[in-house]
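In this section we walk through a basic example: taking a raw amino acid sequence and producing a predicted 3D structure, encoded as discrete structure tokens. The instruction is simple. Fold the sequence below.
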Amino acid sequence: MSKKILMAAADAASAAAKEEHIQIPLRNWIDVEDADNSSTAASSESQLIQALDLNQNRSEQKYYNNVALDDDAKIGIDNFAVCVYKKRGISSSQQQQSDDIRGVRMISSGLSLSIEEPSYLSCLFEEGGEKDDQMGRYLEVELDAQDASVRINKADCHDSADGKEQRKFFLDREGGVAAVDKSASAGIPAIQQMQRWGAPASICRMMQNLLESAAETGGDAYQTMGEVGEDLHLLLFDPDRFLFDHEAQNAHNMQLLYRKEKLYGRDEEENLITDTFCRVTRGKSEAFFIGGFSGSGKSMLVDTLRVRVKNVGGYVIKHKFDAISQDRPLSGVISAVNQLCLMIKHRLTSKRLAALSKQLKDDFGADIGLLARMLPNVCALSPEFSSLAGEVEDRNTSDNMNARSVSFTLLRFVRLVSSPKRPIMLFLDDLQWADDTALDVVHTFLSDTMGSCVFFVGTYRDNEVQIGHAIFDLLQKLETSNVPTIKLSLTGLDRGDLNKMVSDALGLYPRICKSLSDIVFQKTKGNPFFVLEFIQSLQSRGLLQYDSCQKRWLSNEIQLLLKVMACFGTCTNESVIGYLSESPEYAGVRNGLEGAISEGFVELNAEGSFKFVHDKVREAAYNLTPDRDKKQLHYNLGKTLHSICEGKDVGNAIFLIASQINHGKEFIETDDTLRIPVAKLNMKAGEKALDGCDHKMAYFYFLAAISFLPGDSWESYYDLSLRLNVLMARAANSSCRYDEAELTLQRICKRARCLQDKLPAYFLLVTIFLSQGHPNQAYATCSSILTQLGESVPETVTTETVGDMIPETLRMYSEVYGDDWLGQKMEDTSLSNIIKFYSAMASAAYFCKPSHMVAYFVCKMVQMSLQKGVCQYTPLALMQLTSIVIRIDNAAFVHRIAKNALALSEKFGSSGEKTELCVNYYMGAGHLDSYQSGANQLRKAFSSGLSSGNANAAFYCAGHGTHFSTISAETDLPSLLLQIDYYLRLLEIYKSEMPKKFILCYRETISTLIDRGQSTGIEAKLSYGDASDPGIGNKLLEVFYFHQVFRNYWLGYSERCHHYVQKCFAISKPGHFFIYVIKFYHGLNSLDMIKKQANYSKSKEVDEIIASMKVVASQSESNFRNKLELLEAEQYGVTGGHIVAVAFHAYNTAIASAQKAKFVHEQGLACEKAGFYCKRMKDNEKSLMYFNQARECYEKWGSSVKVDFIQKELSKLM
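The resulting token sequence is shown next.
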């Protein structure tokens, strides 16, 4: 028996007042539509999508009618009704065209789905009851299990409007749906009939499956309401794929409907990488590694993040490594950062771009040209950068650069252009082909704690990396540097996700594709790329078709193009294709390119190069050439390109040409006519790599060039051999291959014909010794070379000798310096070389000889320049002189010499020499400038030194800058501690021990002042040497004693402070400015001891200190005026100053001076001293005021120790 079918009615919405809700039988609606030829196919499709849209919405919101199902339940095929809103005031003849279609409604005893909007449901159906006149006739289907068919009988219902007899349908399990009536269409299958009326096959199939019984047919019949909803969702979500028929598809033109942009089965992974990026936008760099087999969807997973990164204002830069280009991985990373410049250019407004350009110029200073050489696209940010790049090229300032300096220079750029609001996502694909030089750049970016905001994503084939690969070293370094890192491994898709992929490709419902998907899964193990290739293979072989099969073969031109491109790696520049097409042998590559693009093997990337759509396509193309013929193919390509491009400026294509021709080494070595041309080709490629700061790549090209030279090259090709060996030694040194560099340099020194040719090799050898911390070897080498150059280098000199040389040198300077001398350039290159080696010898002597020996060599350099004219090393010699001779009594004169040296340096020198100039300036004359500005300049010089490859000078700039920041409170203590820890991490990387000892000493002071080292201290075994050490030990002791005075005074340890003051005076040079900082704390400490012990014996010593402070304050107002005024105020307050107004005026003057100088710690100290004075005077109100001001200053300084101390005093007064 039939069950009652109940439809719930809802109240009409406000729109119902203007529109009448009606339902039209689907059959009647189709008849009218069929008769109305004015309706276009497009409008029908649009209306059908609209109907399905409502259907899907209601299906997802579960607006279903609850219907019971009995064995004898009946289903009415004609109770499919079109739901419309009839607009009032429209005639019946116009009704069909003006109906606002709201959906389609189907009701059966087994299935009941309302696709009307619930607010407009107005009809209540009950079997056997009255029907709405608008419904017309409908038929019931009676299910008969004993019969072979399901008959559709006429049921009691209203006659149709035209009185015509309605068609009768039957469903035959053998033959499908058919229509039988008295019309001419009798016998035509119902699905075909409906298709003839315009209904898509997908709808017809759905209707048939709704009427079938899965239990009896075992076919595609629906079993649950959920299956219907899923299919309806697909019809709505992607109608072009699942709803409408593809008339163009036939046996000879079958197109698989791939979703290239869709990522299947990676929802969790996509959420994980998105969440990680969101954390990066809060300001903390992170790393995300994705491993997996080729084709597992690693790159596509990363690409899902591109839009999100762009939406938050970030940048995505990418580089893909490949097996063919393994010898130049660093160039790939540089190229990726170079892309960033153009992105910034197009993204920022002109105003913001101008501000960024100014910021770059301010931060990089003279190094902006160096950056422009490394990243040519940075010139797009400002036209001024192009001319600066040319100046750098003229000076050859990249000679001392190395892989680390390149990394640091890139980091400086990234710091300025990245931020939490504009994060950078660096995506490096196929890391299995990368090496440590490229990944060291990644570590430099991510471990930075000074402002960069980078999200690194690296993908690699985890089945192709072995233990010891650079990836694992990078992971270890990131862990050591506390960089948050996620490592993810992608496997194949599960059966459900794979089925969705197959369904999309074929345009069929997933439930229908399941059996095929199971077979595909067995063959591919769920690898997404293999799945698509397998289906494509089935289609191309005719095993997957609409009606008949089609087989395709690649043309010879396409095969040639694919073979050629595979030799060049994943990408090939269009210019290379153009060069090859000029040759008869490869003339077909241009046509092959067009075919390869149309066939889907190759595509154009964002940079204008052509790339394979996937690595596996490139591998397959590469394997088109038998292994035995691959070297020959590479070699032929190289020779062809070389012959076509010889004499042309081909830019970076020279790397590709040289790499290709180098595959044919065995062919070249058998042909003497090719050796020298190929060696010169590799030399040009190496020089090009040096220009791009890829020293490792340059090293390999120079190595290849030398290997092509004949055995007697030092005799037959002397100039070429000498140049190549010098270049290779430089590249080896810059690539941190110090052993290879030394061997090459020794070979030059042995084979070169004269000393003049050996000098570059010797000087580079000295540079290596200094960078590796071997000053004695550097000193001995310089002494030997200077002797050969005719100089008499004494084993030792007396202090008396140096004492006479210094005033004589200063006298000569006073007499000679002027425009005439500045215009007198040193023409004798041998003299220039002598000064160069004296300069290196002075640097070595600083670490291993007494200080007066350094002074001797510096005076020799300056006197030689004053007599013979200026050269590149004159500015540094003058600056070294100022650091040696600076005293209170000659400060103004020495300061002028230093300023003149800086002005002269603008005509000469590289960034590395500017770093040495800076460190020497602030060791001497820079004390007359503000300590705070000096700290800032020293930080810039540190960055410049690392960028230019002068790491030793850079780290001494870092040390002096930290020292200046400490004594001037230029940076708050916690920030300064972070900066010091950053320096220490770099020192570990550079393995530089001598600067590390100084910086560890500074760190201990900072940590102690913050919280006595309770939470900020680190374990470090320090060896400070002793006063008898003529070199670095004595200088380290000076720093150690100074900081003991500083920290013990601030902690209130008067006796310890006094002890270390005496040690400082015993070993420090009298008259040096640092001594006056010591005297300041010694004076305050003496006054504290007077207060504690009521012993005025130290008053005379305080008087002497104040007298000397007046002299130094007259020379360096910004650094010492407030110190003098605080000493005077405290002396008055301690030694009997009972005139309160005078005392207050003195203290307030000292406070104001400290505030003006921005010495917040000394401002707090002056307030503290004033507070104690008021306390002694029983003026608690003013004491509270001064102590509160002191606490505010100490909070700004970041010293919890002093804040706690003042808080205790405040508690006593409250």
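Looking at the output, two observations stand out. The radius of gyration is 42 Å. Residues 1073-1093 form the longest helix (21 residues). In the next section we compare this with other chains.
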